Fold these 3 entries.
Entry 1:
Amino acid sequence: MKIIAMAALAVFCAALALTACGSDDAAEQAQQQQQATATVEQPSEQTEQQTVAEQAQAAPEAQQQQAAQQQQAVDQPEPQAEESQQAQSAEPTASESSDQQQQQSTAAMEGESTEEDAQEEEAAAQQQAQAQQSAQTAEQAQAREQEEREAQQAREREREAQRERERAAEAALQARAEEIAADASVSDLVGVTAWLNGEPTTIARELAKGNVVLIDFWTYTCVNCVRTFPFLREWHAKYADRGLTIISVHSPEFEFEEEVENIRQALEQYDLRYLVAQDNDFRTWRAFNNRYWPAKYLIGPAMDIRYQHFGEGDYLETEHEIRRALMDAGHDVSDIEEGTEAVAPVRDPESRGQTRELYGGTRRNYGRVQYAAQPEYYLEAGTAQLYNDVQGSLNSRLQARENHKWYLQGLWRNEEEAIVHARTTEDLEDYLAFKFTSRTVNVVLTVPENGEPFNVYIEMDGRWLRPQEAGADIVFDGDERSYVRVTRDDLYRLVVLDEWSTHELKLRSNSNQLEIFAFTFGSYLGGE
């Protein structure tokens, strides 16, 4: 308020000073204005005088009015000042506004601070919860690990206990096997080079388990052995769970039969699932004083031979002896019907003088029995000779040929196990021929070392085979020529006839890889 009063007094003093010098200034201003007006325009003298007079008259009044207004302004504050004061009283001063803003900012900051504190508290709570959860998870994991360790230890203890039981059982079984072997009247398996379809074993061990053992000597290219496979399969299926252990001892007739992979292929081809012992060195063969393929020896609980059979046939009798041996060993087979679904082949009643098995190699020809008909074969082993076969009509050739022997045309080499075609030809001019009397003809052939298959063409009585005469391995080309495709080391079926009869057969090939090992014959009804 003091500031306002002092401001009003200053205004009043200024008004008084203005009033004291106002008349002179007004006259001077009027004169200057008149001069300026006269310069711009030149009005009439009357007008100019009138204007000057009016100005002179108005000046004192204006001065008086201005003085009055100034006096009034001193006595009473100007409305503008009052409004300003009111505005000042209504609105805060700059400092007050600053204080308010500071307060508002402080309040906002306090609000923000409160929100941040809340967020920090929430984050801290979450971290604490996570820490607790992590600690709990770690405790659970540790507990699980401990449980797993304990379970693992328990399993290990159980396995060790099981191993200990197995060791004890094995020791008892071995002791029992040794007792059986000590009193045995037959040799055990010796010199086995490989086991197929199961783990190694011995006859004494199988007997110690309470089983009986059927030993079967065989080789996979032997057609007589092949004919027994259906019966062996059925006996294994029927009695393997009742105490019968079949051990098939594979003693190879030819060197290529020593290959374990060839034996595996034969097992797959004929679906043989019983145990196979590979006897490449014939040690078990000799231990049994065996002389035949196939041959069977049934061995009972005392490790003695209960029954034996050589060759094919007598299948029902063999099964009957198997059942008796199983029952003597304490096995019940009363619920199993005796007999097999496989039917034994029946020999043709008209068959007389069937052609014997023929061999191509010097091992079996350079001895008491001879299969090669021509003298050139015996000049020197392992050499190639040029051969000339008998000529003429079919009847004349059949009459000229000796029974149970084979003949050559062209260049051939006599090797230990096979007769080998010794050159490459173009028109099938070289061949091996023989006269046979039977219903079926089979041949043992091999693939060359390079693994390349080749064809061997089969001609009977001077013509190609007819489809109804063709064996299982015969195919026909576009010219209806009958042949076999040699793709494996195996026995190949060439001829199957409807009746027992005598014919001439020729094998022709352009390949110098043809090796002929043996021919086998059959006179069973229905083939084989």
Entry 2:
Amino acid sequence: MAVVLKTRKRAIGAASYARGGEESHLRPRYSEKTPPCRNACPSNNDIRGFLTAIAQSEDFGRSNDESFEMAWRLYTETNPMPAVLGRVCPHFCESDCNRAQKDEALSINQVERFIGNYGIEKGLKHEKLTDETKSDKVAVIGSGPAGLSCAFQLARRGYPVTVFEAAPKSGGMLRYGIPSYRLPEDILDAEVAAIEDLGVEIKYDTKVGKDVSLDDLKSEYAAIYIGIGAQEGWTLGIPGEEGEGVMNAVEYLNKFHTGEAVDVSGKKVLVIGGGNSAIDASRVSWRNGADVKILYRRTRDEMPAEYEEIEDTLEEGIEIEYLVAPVAVERDGDGKVTGLKCQKMELGEPDESGRRRPVPIEGSEFVVEADMIIPAIGQQPDYEGLEQLKDPESGWIAVDENSMTTIEGTFAGGDVTAGLGTVTEAIGLGRKAAIAIDAHIKGEEVPKEYPPPIVKYENMASGHYKPAARVEKQVISVDERRGNFNEVVQTLFEDAVIEESKRCMSCGMCFGCDNCYMFCSYSAVKKKPKDEIKPTGDRYEFRLEACVGCKKCAEECPCNYIDMV
């Protein structure tokens, strides 16, 4: 018997060399890896999962509707608001998309938006992870993205959750900071309602620290999560700032959303800053008939606002003047704003943010005419009644690696802990805290997550993928935007979503290309029966007894799903 086996091995080895292969002791193994899009997503959304669910409908005999619902459920495992994030997320995922190194990154954000809209239109309901209703109650302070995310994940785990919201409506800066041409209120309302359907109670017009104390909550709830955001705007700290005609962007946008819109029609409005709030304040003013200009102390490369929002702003004819800093507000004898004294700047060494520090140029002062000035240079939390949680050094709430504050059983996340961040970062922090709260109540360790290695483009057989142009977002014309708050970006049609999803390279996960099966010369790869194949997982299996370790399957696997070990 041993002689037969040795003879067979020699024969296989000879055949391997004859075909140009190389015999090895290594053997193939299917090994899922982390796609760079998911690694870049602060919400940890299963981006590859929802894209390939749509792309592979025919492979698994699903209808488009079945795949769209599957995509929605995969997405909402980590984030309950795909329609919201599909409109306001800066889509870090697209910046890291491997497809960008071949032609263009996937339009992930637009597919995300479609999935969210689909869930709303079809009235899809979130599913709990357990049928158990736990006796331990959890309080969430603030119904912004961090608070809603935390409440959602806790409710899914069976906890009774009460959200305390100081405002008359939910959403935080999603509602009171982002204009409706970017995020219509009915979209936000629908996705909040779906969270409430899980049993989450939201108490409006209830400010913790004023209407109810933190100590009262601690006596009634097993844990507390603080997600109050940062909704107080900074002042410029320059002469002449106090008085009518100067209003920070947070207050300005809040008035707009609550029906107290400031009359800027025909006025010259200066917006100071380079973040999203500055962009929003300027575009709201333009829609309300103002002549608007943005002043920013650095260059466009340093602007923290989303690139696409800056582009839309410039398309609307709003001028951005760079390397300019405010020095003093000028007023006439009646105290009316007439202009803003400014100073030209140049960029010096990088500061703590990594951006080059603006340095004043001596003797470069000049005046820009203005009727109204809107500073949009930063925000901070309102700590009234929660002063004990404020870190005196940083000005934010300090938390440990598990999102717990210095008070046992009290957790925090979002802008109130991390400084001004993005909506997707707040969603991710809310989810992280919910997992930690669940472990805390159970008296267990917070589970550690060990994601598999990230797929790198250079390790993929990228030649397998055919070039395909990106499906770009659709927008209404500038003329159609003037004087109204109609949504600018339009949701992709179903066919376009399917087309774009098929551009996904399925980095690190099998998508049934057959390469490993076709390129194996030794029948060491076997196709699984269709009824054994799961939507995400192996479609083949290795017959290692026939394998000589030639590595051809791994070399020809487009998505780098096969390791030789």
Entry 3:
Amino acid sequence: MNDFKARAKELVSQMTLEEKCSQLRFDSPAIERLDIPAYNWWNEGLHGLARAGTATMFPQAIGIAATFDTELTERIAEIIAIEARAKYNAYSAHGDRDIYKGLTIWSPNINIFRDPRWGRGHETFGEDPYLTALMGVAYVKGLQGDGEYMTAAACAKHFAVHSGPEELRHEFDAEVSDEDLYETYLYAFEKLVKAGVQGVMGAYNRVNGEPACANTELMRILREDWGFDGYFVSDCWAIQDFHMHHKVTSNFIESAALALTKGCDVNCGCSYAYILQAYNEGLVTEAEIDCSVEKLFETRIKLGLFDNTYLDNIPYDVVDCAEHNAVSLEAAEKSMVLLKNDGILPLDKSSVKSIAVIGCSADSTDSLKGNYYGTASGYTTFLQGIKDACGEEIRVHYSEGCDFTKDRSECLAQPYDRISEAIICAEQSDVTILCVGLNEHIEGEEGDTGNEYASGDKASLLLPESQRKLIKAVLDTGKPVIVVLSAGSSVTIDDDRENALICAWYAGPHGGTALAEIIFGEISPSGKLPVTFYKDTDKLPEFTDYSMKNRTYRYIENNDNVLYPFGYGLTYSEFECRIVSVNGDTVTVEAENVGNYDSGEVIQLYKDAKTGNPQLCGIKRIYLMKGEKAQFEVTADIAEGDKLYCGFGQPEKENS
């Protein structure tokens, strides 16, 4: 049996102190005398292999979460790993060991999307720890595989208690109770560690006074309570925050020493360039350096990087192949959530002669991407998907309608210069598909967005004024309107006169195809909200308050502020279900499609919780033909005596 730990220890024992210190950097240099090639630890694969050229891309993580489909999530991660390995094999053969070309994937992001204002929330699997854990574990299993060697290495981030504000993240102290720490913020991390995740990334902020990347209590929980034996990496340039912003150290040397002695093995950033000086000043020991370097080489050996393995034979041809793109389309189809439908959907092509496709998101590839994306070999926008579906039979009128945020599309024009065109297109058409929303330049990570007034966070749940004016103008025409919302978070459409509303998230390169299939009834929508959609932020706690009181569906106290609840999503059919039996953690559920359409659905099990609100404890994605009835086994997180509710969304609060 391959003893990875012993092999790593033996290899590290042959290194000089200087060589060992060099391996603690994310861009680890080669040690030629030991036949150790250079290795860059930094790679991204949140929803497809990112930032290193062409790869199969998928819906953003929040859209994957909306599928409520763990099997699909595992398959997506498996594809990401296979393509990462194929690229690594090809790049290495050409001597290219640059950033974003290694096999240590710094995903998934399993932080809890506790507040809809957080710009990075769309990188997560939503607001529920149980759902986040299920999807995260599926991702880890798919990415790492079950062979002797890992296909790629997953990394759970950002440990821990991290979900904004982006503007304050380098100096912020997240104060949290033990109850919220364990029941909300650490729940998914524990599940992923016990599922074998190879890496954990620390967060920028402090947690109860100590920086997350050098936090005594968090490291104790991670290493001692949970038995984590993989590598720990800092968030990028987080260690320099110790002295520059948190003010817990005085300089780079002290910051590097604090991080290493607390258990941070590799530094994304430049602070570990000072480790040798820290050693010379007596702030770290060689044994502490050895401990971290051994963990890093154990990971590399587990990846087979020092052996000739079956993984070396994965060919470049798998990258962006048709089979992988078919899974991307499936994910887009299952992710879209039908929030409202007065019966207008699905559209009957035989009764429609003209369609207006209007809005800043209609022909925008940015509306499909999210962030942390790679390069898809092609994108089918919503406009193109609808045009392809309409063919020559239905006339499609198009107007951009407005810019995402600016008050005009042409700099020399008067404000709202595209609205009259939008009105004309709507008036000329039998129905309008109005595509609005956000993109990564409006909501995202601090430093990565154009939304610098909030560093990527949202100040409001409302769409930008340019889009609100467009929506009103189109609705005022009195023509039927289907609104398609591209966003990664709770967004309020403050004019609710639309006939139907579809949340498309950031749907990936095949988003336009999936949307057209849903609109014209080729498939039934079946996605579910992994977050609560709120009416406004006035009744939410302060963004900087990390207490879970009155946050998310699990703790909310004011249902009047809920626009659409967690777990909600319509289909074109109607389903019924009932619990048949409970045997340990296995719940047998009988479901029946009593409507008129074949459709997917998601069985959702909830249990009473001490918060007074129902809590998700089991999910199962199903597919039934119209009139079909079947029994399904659902694995649930339950204890004897728990009162269970079975349905296709949350039970009503008064019944729980």
